[in-house]
Each structure stands twice: as structure tokens, then as C-alpha cells.
């Protein structure tokens, strides 16, 4: 288990209760406020924050059953996210966990945290904490807040960790056109580095440069996320941000096994035979491998 606080709270206890059987933990359970579709203030907090000026089109629609859904398109006419009413309440979560044999799940807002204002984040965090309390120890939550530093944002981080009992912080792997190695995030990352709290980093629906992949649904909705996550991890590794913030622990979600093949390509080793020319930088391997061991999970 990578969450130190979570491990101390539930790790050994759960294993002992289950007679030594390994605990199954889902680190990526989606969470939205339970009253998202019935509370106009909450719904507006989601709908109004997607930046239409940058091509993010948020709207409200319905599925065939009549249930409402929150839809995100980019570009217009191409759907990337669909959140359906009724999928995110506590009862649905616990049933899904039972069906899948999951003991414990960690809550995280799916993708939308890229735009949410602080006031909406507070509502999200309060509801997550309430849901965790009512789950009888089966749910834990990650704090959701804007990543720009500033006193009010940092007060919310402190409230989430100390008062609401959250065990991690969530980030999108890019905000607008800025990946997390950008200087804009340094004030917030400095605090996270000092706090030592684990950070869940989730892809956004599309990478910053998406124009060549949006035409086809599966290419856009699946490969686009892989491109975004791979770009984010690569920038984090090569930018040197972990040299400045060595205590950061980034857990990149939904990052498949193909990464472990690709990381070999990013850290090539010098061969015994002298090449006519060196096409790749051979000097970075040791440094990048250190970050992969200490900072990326």
C-alpha cells in the first residue's frame, strides 16, 4: 500500500480481520456529489466551469432510460465524458465493490477537477467525507482543490487532511495547456512536498495537442488518455521537478503495462559496441530511473 496514513489506519487491521487474506483496494473509484443532479448550485458549479472558450463544451442531457447525464464535448460534437445520474451514490458504490470483491476504495473526482472552483471543491470534499463516514471503513477520499497555491486553497488542503481525514490529494495531469512541471504549480507542489501526502494524478480526456486523434471515438476516448498520461509522466521525469521536490509521490492512475516497456526506451543504456552516431541521450538514464523508483507509482 502506498498511502502511509491509510496503511497505518486500515492496512494491518483489515488483514488481521480477514485472517491474512490480502486486502483488495480500488485506488480509482469515481466520486461526484450525490446531489449533483438535484442541487442547482452544485450542478452550476460543474457546468459553468468548463472553459467553453478553450473548446470544452459542458451540457446536460438524458440517456434512454430518462436518467440525466452530464456531457463533456471537445471539440463540439465529440463526446469525451458522460456522468449518469444515480451511478455515484453510496449504495451504488458499495454494491459495485461487493460485486467485484473489492474491500476498500479511494474516492476521486473523475477528470472535472481540472476546472472546479474552490467553492465547488468544498462541496465535493464535504460530500466525500460524509460518504466515507457512512461506509463503515470501506471508503477513503482524496482532497479535491485548485492547484494554484494561495491561502484559501491551502486552507482547504489543511481542512481536508486534518478535519475531514482524507488520505491523499488529487490532481489532473494538466490544467488547460499547462502540465504539472510548469512553474505555475510550484507554490502548491512545494506545500505537497513538505507535507509528504501522496498525490493521485489522473489524465484529462484529451492531451493538450489532440487535433490528430479526435475524429474517431475509441482513438479519442482511450488512446487520447494514454497520450495525455504518457506526456505528463515524461515531462515530470525530464523537467527535474523531482530534484526540486524530492518528497513528491505521484500515483498516475489508469497507466497500463505498456508503460513499463516504454520506460526502457526513455532510459537507454550505452551499448558495448561504438555507434556511428548517438541518436539518443544516454546520460539521463540513472537520474530518470531514480525518479521512477522514488516519485512515480
- Provide the residue-averaged pLDDT: 87
- Low-confidence parts: 1-17
CATH superfamily: Metal-dependent hydrolases
| CATH class group | Alpha Beta
**Major sheet:** 6 strands, parallel
Report the CATH architecture: Alpha-Beta Barrel
How far apart lie the N and C ends? 11 Å
Cα radius of gyration in angstroms: 20 Å
The fraction of residues assigned to DSSP E strands is: 15-25%
Number of helices: 10
Give the neighbour order of strands across the main sheet: 1-5-6-7-10-11
Basic shape:
globular
Helical content band: 40-55%
- What's the number of structural domains? 1
Count all strands and give the number: 11
CATH topology: TIM Barrel
Structural class of the secondary elements? alpha/beta
Element order, helices and strands? HEHEEEHEHEHEEEHEHHEHH
